[in-house]
Amino acid sequence: MEVGASATRAAPAPRGARAPDGWTAFTVVCAVLVAGPLLGLPIAFITGHGDALTRFSGLLPEALLSTLGLLVGVGLGALVLGTGLAALVSFCDFPGRSWLEWALVLPLAVPGYVFTLFALGTLPAGGAAIRSLIGAVAIFTLVLYPYVYLLARAAFLSQSATLFEAARGLGLSRREAILRVGLPLARPAIFGGVALALMEALADFGTVNLLGVHTFTDAIYKVWFNAFDRQAAMQLATFLMGITLTLLALERLARGRARYAAHGRALPPIRLRGPAAAAAVMAPLVLLAVVVAAPLAQLAAWAVDAVDDGLLAPEFAAAARNSLLLALMSAVLVGGLATLLAYGLRASRTRSSALAVRAATIGYGLPGSVVAVAVIVPLAWLDHRIDDASGSILGIDPGLLLTGTVIGLFCAYTVRFLALAFQAVEASLGRIPDELDEAARGLGSDRLDVLARVHVPLIRAGLVTAALLVFTEVMKELPATMLLRPVGGDTLAIEVWQATSESLYRTAALPALLIVLVGLVPVILMIRLSGRRVSEPEAAVTAGTWTR
Amino acid sequence: MSEVRLESVAKAFGRVRAVDGVSLEIGAGELVAVLGPSGCGKTTLLRLIAGFERPDAGIVRVAEAEMAGAGRFVPPEKRAVGMVFQDYALFPHLVVAANVAFGLARRPKAERGALTKRTLELVGLQHKADRYPHELSGGERQRVALARALAPEPKVVLLDEPFSNLDATLRAGLRREVELILRDAEATALLVTHDQEEALSLADRLAVMNEGRLVQVGVPEEVYARPAGRWAAQFVGEVNVLSGVARGAGVETELGVFDLHRPATGAVHVAVRPEQLELSARHDGNAEVVEREFRGHDVLYRLRHEGGRTVLVQLPSLELYEVGARVFVRPAPTSVAPLVD
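Structure tokens for the assembled complex are given below, as produced in the milestone run.
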């Protein structure tokens, strides 16, 4: 390969004085629109009137304490449960292991508030025992441990047997080798998983609200709806954003140090027999029964009851339609935007577009409440301008065009889920060699034409994954939807929360069941893809071949 | 009329001057090869013509229209330049016919079908029209890539090391085949290669490139027989560079007196090809055979001359000299070129 050619591919070399191309401009505009509101939050905090904090100073200490308590509790819980299960299936062999290995991911499909619904409805005395921080920690641990489990398992499986053999040769027992070699090697992955679980816990609104735990999300909701104080909501959101970004930075740091140097023969697992094998099968089975099977069965039973007894909420059909439409449209919108963004980065290859893409995907992991508060500020400002302008020029009053409609919701979903879709698209786009772009352009295709005729057909799997991820996330999403939904815009998630908070568990069951079933789709997809490591079309592209 | 004209084109990547003031013209229907070692900037030159790189300076014209120059840059899709990539870059999700028709999207349907069919016939792949690229052999893939580039009837076809991905046994046959296809299509073509044999046998004209500059441009026979400089002489074929004293039409060297292409006087270096020397077996010879490389139809001898230098001699394999034999080496009745550097 020529020096020159490789240099262009390796680095976005400075191109000298040159007007920015359209794709760079596009990515920068995306970044400003997506990250702008988030950057606006702390600015509003500084410039805003300072009495909001004092007005809500009563809320702040409790929010801070509860949130920290939640972080510590869930962190420890997910760490122990996730790592323990990962070690069990990675280092031991027992009947049913290959099946359990994947079944243990299923709790990802159960949102915290759905499990809370199940717990509150089945435990005695209206679930009085779990209406506390401890209860919230327990629930989050049960539904969020798969993040730790998945990353720890991947790390354990990538460890080479020779390392363990070396440890054994130095006089360590098998158990000691796992504890002193296997665990420390997997530490970056495990911490990364814990950080992901914690970000999910921070983003939650339904669980903590239903259990009466007054964390930041809950406080934001209170000042927003009970006091109508946006300034205070923004200040609380800024706090929450700070905590989340710290976690995000820690996760990046942990991942950055994760170097799996060893890629050799895998360690043969210990074959468990007798009581040990029985215990190894039973423990995960009991866990799955509690977190997945029992809630599904109970929800199904309640749902049947509700349908039979006419206990369904009157708005159920409308909520289902709203959920479906919102999720579908977001999947198309966010998936499409993510594709254009990923392609823009590829087409321009400038330093500014790389930076812009990083900025545009920062919303990932930020709680929906923070995102909602962040996007409402510029949208409300625009709304008033539009309203004033049309009032004075056209003499009509359009009302709140952006904040009063689903447009605000779409903005929030875009900020929150763009990174998710972007990662899925980028992973498959990155496998297409640059020569294909150049070949198509040499044949008269412009950039958009190349995208439509070469890339989209080649990354179909990635596109479907991206759309599916956004679809299910929007179906599950509660806090942002809650804060930004237009009048009459209730979704299934809101139905679940509302009915549960009024102890109408049967009414909440059917929407909750639907949410879990939809949530199962990407989890099952992930399991299937992991089984094959790389999906076939993508592998075919890498190999320069293609199978139908 | 020239189909491609480069005027003092330059392109740097950081501190590396990949293309450093190159001027070159390619006439209609001409097949020009850019020959140079890897890293000499020849692929960058191709990419500058195709529009995948912007020149830092100079002008690129295709069919007399300015494609890149001061303040002007025509994107690749508007240049009507066909490109055949080193690894073919066939679209894996499209069958052969769809690959070939890719560049014809804006033509009327009937014309598109006819052009695709005709181009497939030109490369002899009409029977593989429904196959996917991964179902083809390397040579077939290359012909698809060529057909795809030719189908939109471009002003010029650029070929980037088109034979480097093929087995050595296939290469010679395919080289001839590609040449015939290009001639049939009356295409103007620029081919980039590091293989001197490929360049010499295929091209109407040769442009020898080193470190971003064109060292010599000419017909293959001329570049081979009369290299402009020491580097070009050594890169294109094997050569003995001898120093001597020129006296008008002849030059006197330690191996004897050679005729000169053009008269010169004074101290010069001359490029003497191995086949421009003759050997005879003599006990009192002036050289000894150190090495013998049998190549079938000819033999390359490495001799140690009594002056101490190594001399390369190429002879038909009719009569063989053993390693260690004493031989007498002398100029064959041909003329040699004085080198400028």
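Chain B has a mean pLDDT of 91. The first strand of chain B starts at residue 2 and ends at 13. Further analysis is deferred to the final report.
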